[in-house]
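notes to self, project folder thing:

trying the whole complex as one job this time. last attempt i did each chain seperately and stitching them together was a nightmare. two parts in total, labels are on each line so i dont mix them up again. if this works i'll redo the older ones the same way
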Amino acid sequence: MMQRYFSRRDLLGRPGGGVAGLAFADMLQRERAGAALLDPLAPKKSHHSGKAKALISVFCYGGVSQMDTFDPKPMLDRHAGEALTGKGTVTVSQGTPGGLMPSPWKFAKHGQCGMDVSDLFPHVAKRVDDIAFIRSMTTLSNDHGPALYQMNTGFVGAGHPSMGSWITYGLGSENENLPGFVVFTDPRGGPIGGAPNWGNGYMPAAFQGTPFRAAGDPIVDLTPPKEVQGERQRKWLDYLGAMNEDHRKRNPFDTELSARVAAYELAYRMQTHATEAVDLNRESEETRKLYGLDEERTRYFGRQALMAARLVERGVRFVQIFSGGGNFQESWDAHWDIKWNHETHCGETDKPLAALIADLKRRGLLDSTLILWHGEFGRMPISQRMDGRDHNPDAFTVWMAGGGVKAGPVFGSTDEFGYRAQENKRAVNDLHATVLHLLGLDHERLTYPHLGREMRLTDVSGNVIKEIVA
Amino acid sequence: MRLFAIFLAAAAIHAEDLATLAHGVLSKNCFGCHGAALKMSKLDLRTREAALAGGERGPSITPANPARSSLYLFATHQQNPAMPPGKKLDDGDLDILRKWIEAGAEYPAQQLTQKEQEAKAAMAAMEERPITAGERNFWAFRAVARVEPPTAGNPVDAFLRATWSQSGLTPSPRADKRTLVRRAYLDLLGLPPTAEQIRVFLEDSSFKAWENLVETLLASPHYGERQARHWLDLVRFADSGGFEYDNDRPSAWRYRDYVVKAFNSDKPYDRFIREQIAGDELDGSPESLIATGFLRLGPENNIKNEMTRLDELDDIVQTTSLAFLGMTTGCARCHNHKFDPIPQKDYYRLQAVFFSTKSDSLPLVDAEIVRRYNDETRRIDAQQEPRKKTKAAIEKPHRDTIFEENVAKLAPYMGEAWRTPAEKRTEGQKLNARQIERTMKIEEAEIVARMSAAEKASHAAEVAAIRKLDRQRPKPYESAMTVAEQGRDPIPSYFLHRGGAGNKGSRMDAGILTVAAVDGLPTIEPPPGATTTYRRRNFAEWLASPKNPLTARVMVNRIWQRHFGEGIVATPNNFGRKGEAPTHPELLDWLAAEFVRSGWSVKAMHRVMMKSEAYRMQAGDIEANRKIDPTNRMVWRMPRQRLDIETIRDNMMAAAGTLDLAVGGPAVLPYIDPALFQSSSKRTWNGRPDTDRSTWRRSLYVFSKRTIRYPMFEAFDQPDMIASCGRRNSSVTAPQALLFMNNAMVRMHASHFADRLRKEGADPARQVEMAFQAALARQPSQAELERSTAFVERTPKGLLDFCQALFNLNEFVYTP
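result (full assembly):
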């Protein structure tokens, strides 16, 4: 897949990408000088000083309905049951299109900014002054798989590095004892498209997302069998280290061999650190309640959100949490009975989301942590299967909080029914460019060579949405 | 078309007139249902392309052949459904249609205004991108020039020696025999040598000992397995289709086994190419057809439309160019290649080579079994039908009641739409009423709950009868994935400006990479009765031509890379300007020429490379050389490479004595922790437990599912099988270490390793010696022996811990 072979050495000579014109000998010189260059995830300099140091993405897989959450459309009430006309051919992803369907929820204005939020998000509604909403997002595909890949990797096809890979490739990680890029999936299943959603594509495996479990050991194979734990494993590592040292003497300049020795020590430390990072018993009762850990409905997502806060606090660069999994009603994919569907999924996430904003703020981390809330597309203003909504790639709402975002304003708008983005229409590339910008990365300079091209997360387009940057 | 024009001149009808007449007949009688407003059976007859592409009943027109054109057969009522419904065209109209199809079924040219004509000409001009002499003169596009080696002896050494002396490099000394035997086994078989195999080589003191070893390995059935793994990376092989459904491909392994056999039998590489691109157009043997399954290996979108079809073709064009030619062509889908002389038109000519192919299945059983399968399926369907009708009749009254109750629960405007008489419904009400009618789901259990006891009994009887018949359904017969085409005439394809499906330019003929044209595209005509266009055959002939400047160079470079860690061209999939230039161009050309001269024998290439002194050098560093050539591009030592993860896993089981060395057959599914994949109704992994010996097969046979990757492979840079991979990444991460430290499967094999040692030797020192032999193919040094024995004796489970430690050694996972 890769054209030119890049060892860690090469990568390390590429601060944040762009083919550095460093002579190989020079790189070796620096290595010999003892620079901490063994770890591909070592912190790297950003392109510019971004406020955000970390990103938490809450991916509402299946697609959230904009007109039922953050984009009220009274016209739907006025024209209930009427055909959607004057908008060209209405393309549905499946089934038979129905007439316009009013939202089953009430909207009210909230916060200083007077943002409209529906009854579905009572807790998030209290945090709107910390949030920047974009109502005019669009994507290319109305099919889950391609739309998920686009949101996570910038391309509708599989095989490209995910946003987390790009970010850890560009910035490294602040905590060498933890993975730089962590993924939590929903207990009901993973998203369509599977592992490529957090895959490293053509980049080295060091940049792939590490799936974390919300219960038990956070990482598979993190903990050794009981009888090996402690002293016995330490002795084992010492023996291994001594043997490897003999072997390394024959190739004293081969940093890959040394890196592998270092990786074992890191893995050893990770066993302790990762366990500690997700140990929620270390949090106060008040904090646990804030995230809804005392309620059945919010417990799972609440645990993940609190773990995300703790991981970011410990220097993890990117945490992605999937809300919703599997198929249809297990996810936000409300093809029918949207009332049950969105009440379920909003009910599980609303309180923990608001808690995440509040908690990061009091930990002093909100300024340096960007929270991105999004799905892979929006939903239709017309009915599907009588009381549901179909996929809609032409309009959806995403929001961001913290991390250098200008909170409060609403950016962009949709037409009178929420069918298509109208003012300030933006594409996924623009969203990615903005996220990278907030993290101090220039999306046009963050490149990686593949098949003869310098590839980007944003492919060949994308503009930073300056209006929501503080 | 020229032939037909002559025929028509004789008949005194101009082709244009005929086209106009036929268009008139179609427009009057057919377009109503197969045109702008409606596309019944998904058929649109308004354009030639659409008519040829056809609808649910397949292509409607086979140009020049009315008897094979369903449009004509339906219109003449020779076949059902007779068309148009309820009437028959008069003989005059039928005659026009017949002559028109015979003449090639051309549609009338659209009358263009001057402005349109100018615009069209301007667009056509944009398609042209001439290639300059300078571009043709780039090293990779020049003909292979065989230069004789500067000195006698092994040609590889002769060429390398010249560069060493020029640069003042000292070649690394020869490695010892134990290092060499392990290196050769790992390179050619991907397996460690056994104690016995090591002994045979060490005791062979003849001057032919090395040669004998190489020959033994080349003759091993495991040689093909190892080489197949490299090839499968190039053709992004997987056992599932990717995308949303990621459907399993239960017969994909047949292509994998074909590749194993091809390498084992040293199938000439030019033949290997022809079979994969055009096996159906060669001899049509099952082997060739399975090989052509190459065209089916890519990811397959569950959504089928023009765009996804173009994406599939793009994947085939790109993979073919990368794997066989080492050229990136993907950029030329939307514009002329920015770095290489690959015009966009070349891309669409390559696309035209594959445009007419469609998926096909090759039964691998007797025709009789296929016939019986079809007969049985029809019988069961027929017997179920009346049962299903009866069952539906019993359900109907209850279903209707529940239906009305459910409507009453909907939003008021929905109920109103439903109650409004059909003819009075507004547009919105029509949509909503139709939606209610089509999408109201009522569970069978809910219906049954409302039935009387008598109804329940008869309903249950029907259900039982239907199920009983289902159980009689025959098992699907064995088949392989391959391709077919619809006939000798290609489906027209077009230049697409900016890659957009809607921006059609000129119609494209099949073609090749112009810059590497040699003698142009061969012109083998499809024989009488051919059911394909022979475009792929001709393309394959060009690919496999000894004169093709890329094919042989690209392949010998890959073989070199497998032995020396890095290719003579360091970018094996990019021989273009953005790739690396060859470090030893004369050696590359000598190898390419020798490859062709040997009859495209891959094994001959292994021989010439492995018998060199260069291959037998030590891997250790030489500090003086590093100052001159720190990256070893001049090949003054054997570089240390991390083994691919498949080889690491195979070596682990081989050392443990647990590896099942059976060759070929369906893929196996080892255990994956459910936390690492999330099963849903669409994707699942039914892994067998680690203790199940059926999973102790070589890693080549582990089921490769595109969206559920085997965690160990994924962690160690196995490519994602979405695009061709010419060289794997080799990253070093903590999760890799965790896996080999704590994973239960790794520990289980370590435990088997320990048991094996205990059985063979009671004394810890002896056990350590045997373990070193099994895992590293060498004896421990005195210091290693003492340290290891002490470690083994320290705790009751010391031997197990020691065995597991061996799997984690750098020496174990890096080439010697």
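what i see at first glance: The mean pLDDT of chain A is 88.
need to look closer tmrw
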